[in-house]
């Protein structure tokens, strides 16, 4: 469904990602693991069209979208839930969610999608009028995921959704990810939580300093010594 082929990308002419080949099949959960600075968020931002490719291609259902604009990619269903949530703090929960569904493709479906989001996150239903900046970290993550769903995601890219959350909330977020998966959503999950990601993802990639060091099913990735090395910098 979504693929990076021979992708090199970075900032100011300096490559961070080098010759990355990564694909996410329709309905799959693919985990993207790696230490700080490995280039995980950069890759998500290249998929989103925020960071341009220096070489290689981005494909959506086989179609080359390398030069398609970021807003258009959202309309096509390529949606990210950014690292650190980035909710709009001075806007209410309702406004944050509705804004997610502002693009031309998603807008007609907003009432139905809002119902769906509130059924996943009943807690947000009780807080629709509350400014998002006053929510707990876990609740803000719910808003961020809800906003991504409101955008009409067909591929949902989650950038460290469990970061900074208590174990109970982490558990809850992974349950939501499983629910979305069961409903057929295609998911690229960026995480540093190795064991939970290996447990929930169909396949994983480990990125080490901008290069794919390991890829395969959970078993393969868990047992590959390069997985540990990528984390411990050995
Ligand atoms: N806007 C930018 N301008 C210049 N360099 C950047 C920019 N964003 C990221 N980088 C650099 O790219 C490298 C990879 O960063 P990136 O955020 O992709 O890593 P990451 O794997 O997501 O790390 P983390 O787990 O800490 O979020 C880092 O060295 C970072 O300093
Ligand atoms: Mg990151």
Structural description of this entry:
By secondary structure, this protein is an alpha/beta fold. Helix content is about 40%, strand content about 25%. A six-stranded mixed sheet has the order 6-7-8-3-9-10, sandwiched between helices. β9 and β10 form a beta hairpin. α3 runs parallel beside α6. The longest helix is centred in the last third of the chain and has 16 residues. The two termini are about 35 Å apart. The mean pLDDT is about 95. It binds adenosine-5'-triphosphate and magnesium ion. The site of magnesium ion has 4 residues, from α1.
Protein topology:
Blueprint: E1 2-11, E2 14-24, E3 29-33, H1 40-48, E4 53-60, E5 63-64, H2 70-75, E6 78-81, H3 93-100, H4 110-120, H5 122-125, H6 137-150, E7 155-159, H7 167-182, E8 186-191, H8 194-200, E9 203-208, E10 211-216, H9 218-223, H10 225-232
Parallel strand pairs: 3-8, 3-9, 6-7, 7-8
Antiparallel strand pairs: 1-2, 1-4, 4-5, 9-10
This protein binds adenosine-5'-triphosphate and magnesium ion.
Would you report the number of β strands?
A: 10
Order of strands across the widest beta sheet? 6-7-8-3-9-10
The molecules bound to the chains, other than polymers, are: adenosine-5'-triphosphate, magnesium ion
Report the portion of residues in β strands: 25-35%
* First-to-last CA distance: 34 Å
General shape: globular
How many strands, what sense, and barrel or not for the largest sheet?
6 strands, mixed
pLDDT average, as an integer?
A: 94
Query: Unreliable stretches, pLDDT < 50, 5 or more residues?
Result: none
Helix and strand element order: EEEHEEHEHHHHEHEHEEHH
Q: Provide the helix percentage.
A: 25-40%
> Over all CA atoms, what is the radius of gyration?
17 Å
Structural class: alpha/beta
